[in-house]
Amino acid sequence: MNIRKRLIQLTITAVATILAAMAWSFSFGETGFWNQYKLKKQIAHLEFEADSLKKILEIRKLEGERLQKDSFYIESIARTQFGMSKKGEDVYQFIDD
Fold this sequence. Notes:
Blueprint: H1 2-28, H2 33-69, H3 71-82
């Protein structure tokens, strides 16, 4: 009878250990719930960043097309960003106090 109790205790201990290991693996393992949660958050962040970069790229493409085709836009950029002027023009710069 004593051997039978010992065998039942060992079986219960083995089953409990296996279940605990499986629960640990499902929760914190490589493909566990916690890791899946972190990966989903990272994917959402990267998708948001990719969308932002796509918008910036589209703006840059439109600006590139304007710089190639729109002479008035080129002139405004030359005047405002680089302080350029046409021959014979006087340029006045106002300095804020």
